[in-house]
Fold Protein N-acetyltransferase, RimJ/RimL family.
Amino acid sequence: MRDDGGVLLETARLTLRRFTMDDVDRLVALDADPEVMRFLTGGAPTSARTFRDEVLPRVLAQYARHPGLGRWATLDRFTGEFLGWHSLDPSGDGAEAELGYRLRRATWGHGLATEGARALVRHAFDTVGVRRVWAQTMAVNDRSRAVMARAGLRYVRTFHLTFDDPIPGTEHGEVECELRRDAWPATRQEWDAAALRAR
């Protein structure tokens, strides 16, 4: 696995590469699906202007500030088709990383979110050397919570935030999950053993 200015890593089915400003339309299309955005904005899309003027400039600047961390476009490894994104957003001065993922609805149910998430968890500990990978989502977002669990993250807490415009399910709170460096070797060994059994 490498960060060569373009491709960060590849898995059996995915390529994760850096974003560029040419990805605006791809991101707009991803966020235009109300189901994709259901647990994030209540289904509201993100404008091209927001991606062009706010989101992508921030993402691109992060690559230099925190090498090996950030947000990456997730592509089909064989066709190059844009599927969405996976991320390890730096926190705690880069000593920790927040795992994230957002994929097109057509890809759901095929293990792609988990495949990319596991690859980034491995990258976070083995290459970057973070002390903790964590993630959070709405308590009612069962799909995302399942990906977190399959990526080795374990439940830490449920907490409640106050929003000016809460979306359905907010009343049940947010959950935080994590995997710490001291627990990573056992998780890695479990994954490697499972991969050997599957051959």
Notes: Helices lie at 24-31, 38-41, 48-65, 112-128, 142-150, 184-198.
